[in-house]
């Protein structure tokens, strides 16, 4: 494993180990994150999550009836994850602590990686791992930050992150993330109230930054805003991928071209996936 990935994992462990117990995400959020994978299609499948954090997604996946459920995480979050899964998992969940880039856990029917690739030192290698763990004919699914739609974040948040990620986690969480997220919380709630009162405005969506994302997060409580802000600031590394990069991943040998999808989510991120065919290899240049 690389030094940068280890430092990133340690940083995120400080985030996941200090958030509230249970899943950080609602069931609705989870289902939207894995769409277009239908929840009814998961029953009986072997499923692997690459980079499970504190198990916030595994908690929901476990309720869909997979035949086998596993996850790998580099950070020291196994204890918190086991506590969260103990509440809901009807059967055992295989949890591994290790590097998702170099791991070899075998082939699964469904492999997903949500929110991890954009923090890796080598995102291409992370994508190859996503394919490597997907059995021939199986499904893979991912989510990453987009370069498109994140101009304000890259301009304002990224310079702060580069400093904040070097500070003690508690100072970043309470001294920076907490006061900085208050204006965005008020902004999101204001947009949500305007939309409820006057209906959707395409003009506002085009004119205001992070409009779609703000509406998505606006119904969540303040603690969730704080958690997201801390996640943004604590990590030593964040990348933003343009459409062309994700299309290059999906053009990898071993991916069935007719099976792929690429969805621009909330105006600031990409959901993507498909099925594997022959043995997956590296993305083509």
Question: Could you characterize the architecture of this molecule?
Answer:
The protein is 43% helix and 16% strand. The chain is built from 11 helices and 7 strands. The model has no long low-confidence stretch (mean pLDDT 93). It has 285 residues and is of the alpha/beta class. The protein has helices spanning 3-16, 27-34, 58-61, 78-86, 123-132, 151-164, 169-198, 202-207, 211-217, 222-234, 243-250; strands at residues 46-50, 68-73, 94-97, 108-114, 134-145, 261-265, 269-275. The protein has a 7-stranded mixed sheet. The protein has 2 domains: 3-147 and 240-275, Vaccinia Virus protein VP39 (Rossmann fold); 151-234. The chain is globular, with a radius of gyration of 18 Å.
Q: Provide the spatial order of strands within the biggest beta sheet.
A: 3-2-1-4-5-7-6
Poorly predicted runs are none
Query: In the CATH scheme, what's the topology name of the largest domain?
Result: Rossmann fold
Number of helices: 11
Q: Report the major sheet.
A: 7 strands, mixed
Quick structural overview:
The chain has 285 residues and is of the alpha/beta class. The protein has helices at 3-16, 27-34, 58-61, 78-86, 123-132, 151-164, 169-198, 202-207, 211-217, 222-234, 243-250; strands at 46-50, 68-73, 94-97, 108-114, 134-145, 261-265, 269-275.
Task: Name a few traits of the molecule.
single chain, 285 residues, alpha/beta, Rossmann fold, 2 domains, seven-stranded mixed sheet, 11 helices, 16% strand
């Amino acid at each position: 494993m690389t030094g940068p990935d280890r430092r990133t994992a340690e940083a995120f462990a400080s985030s996941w180990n200090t958030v509230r117990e249970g899943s950080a995400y609602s069931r609705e959020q989870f289902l939207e994150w894995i769409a277009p994978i239908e929840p009814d299609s998961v029953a009986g499948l072997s499923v692997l999550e690459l980079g499970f954090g504190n198990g916030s997604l595994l908690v929901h996946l476990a309720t869909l009836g997979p035949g086998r459920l596993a996850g790998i995480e580099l950070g020291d979050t196994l204890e918190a994850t086991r506590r969260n899964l103990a509440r809901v998992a009807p059967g055992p969940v295989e949890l591994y602590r290790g590097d998702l880039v170099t791991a070899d856990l075998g082939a699964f029917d469904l492999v997903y990686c949500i929110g991890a690739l954009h923090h890796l030192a080598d995102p291409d290698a992370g994508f190859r791992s996503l394919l490597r763990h997907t059995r021939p004919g199986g499904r893979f699914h991912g989510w990453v930050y987009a370069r498109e739609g994140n101009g304000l974040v890259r301009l304002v948040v990224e310079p702060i992150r580069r400093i904040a990620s070097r500070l003690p986690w508690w100072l970043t969480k309470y001294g920076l993330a907490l006061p900085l997220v208050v204006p965005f919380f008020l902004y999101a709630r204001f947009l949500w109230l305007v939309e409820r009162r006057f209906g959707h405005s395409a003009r506002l969506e085009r004119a205001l930054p992070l409009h779609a994302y703000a509406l998505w997060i606006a119904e969540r409580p303040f603690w969730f805003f704080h958690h997201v802000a801390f996640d943004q600031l604590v990590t030593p590394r964040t990348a933003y991928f343009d459409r062309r990069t994700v299309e290059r991943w999906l053009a990898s040998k071993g991916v069935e071209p007719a099976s792929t999808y690429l969805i621009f989510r909330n105006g600031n991120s990409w959901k993507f996936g498909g099925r594997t065919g022959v043995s997956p290899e590296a993305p083509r240049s």
